[in-house]
Specification:
The protein has helices at residues 14-30, 49-59, 79-95, 111-128, 145-161, 179-188, 205-221, 239-249; strands spanning 2-8, 37-41, 67-72, 101-103, 133-139, 166-171, 193-198, 226-229. It starts with a strand and ends in a 7-residue tail after the last helix. It has 256 residues and is of the alpha/beta class. The strands form two sheets. A four-stranded parallel beta sheet has the order 2-1-3-4, sandwiched between helices. It has a four-stranded parallel beta sheet with strand order 6-5-7-8, with helices on both faces.
């Protein structure tokens, strides 16, 4: 049998962790053999990905009968994918050489996930009904050059596929520009409506910062400009279905 372990980051926010658990439950309800879809967290929540994988392997029997795919529910391939998840898979292969353990590409690399974000921006542009809309994609920010390049590539996809005059990127940490600086630059370039696009899967501290600091600050500084925020992936009703499709089509035999 083919088991799939969804690996989410984990958060100090219980609401974010509950969203991850609800997402796993929704995927289980969609895919055939959904009882073989599991969830683990990298940090800050339980079950940890180590415990979840150990539990999965405890019910696996042999090379010919069982296999496991780890699917990182992450938007970029930074250190958690390259180091933490990769090392977990390597250790587990050493402990259970009889069971194939595969790490699938993180979900942020999937075109279907990128299309969800594109659809969010398109809908926001339609709602704005202004003459010169702009979108500012707000990312967590990463010191990993490859993860940073991946974020920039995603921004180019949004710019290519959306009817928006200006699409730019901002970072909540590590890199610049800050969200307020990027918003101000868009307005100075002529935007009269700005859509803030959280490049996030789940709620938590980063979304709270956008909602409690970035957007109120922008509205205070630029009262003549219309502001909107797109939903995070966890709040998009289409997300579980898209993730279920990824689960069905990841490398190796489909579930079941």
């Amino acid at each position: 049998m083919h088991h799939v372990l969804l690996v989410a980051h984990g958060s100090r926010s219980s609401a974010a962790n509950d969203q991850a658990r609800a997402l796993c439950g929704a995927v289980r309800a969609i895919v055939p053999g959904g009882e073989r879809v599991h969830l683990g967290f990298i940090e800050l929540a339980t079950p940890t990905m180590q415990d979840a994988l150990s539990q999965v392997l405890s019910v696996c029997r042999s090379h010919e009968l069982d296999r496991v795919t780890i699917l990182p529910v992450l938007l970029t391939a930074a250190a958690h994918v390259k180091r933490d998840i990769a090392e977990l898979a390597e250790r587990s292969r050493a402990e259970r050489a009889d069971i194939p353990i595969h790490v699938a590409p993180h979900i942020g690399a999937a075109p279907a996930i990128q299309r969800l974000f594109v659809d969010h921006v398109r809908h926001a542009a339609t709602r704005a009904r202004r003459g010169s809309p702009a979108a500012v994609i707000v990312s967590r920010g990463s010191g990993d050059p490859a993860a940073h390049d991946e974020t920039l590539a995603f921004v180019r996809v949004v710019a290519r596929d959306c009817p928006i005059d200006r699409v730019s990127v901002a970072y909540l940490a590590v890199r610049e520009p800050t969200p307020i600086a990027a918003i101000e630059a868009a307005v100075q370039a002529g935007a009269d409506a700005v859509t803030v696009v959280p490049h996030l899967i789940f709620a938590g501290r980063l979304l709270l910062e956008i909602d409690s600091t970035v957007l109120p600050g922008a509205r205070t500084r630029m009262p003549s400009v219309s502001f909107d925020r797109t939903p995070i992936l966890a709040d998009d009703p289409a997300f579980p279905g898209v993730l279920a499709s990824i689960v069905r089509n990841i490398s190796g035999p489909a579930v079941p």
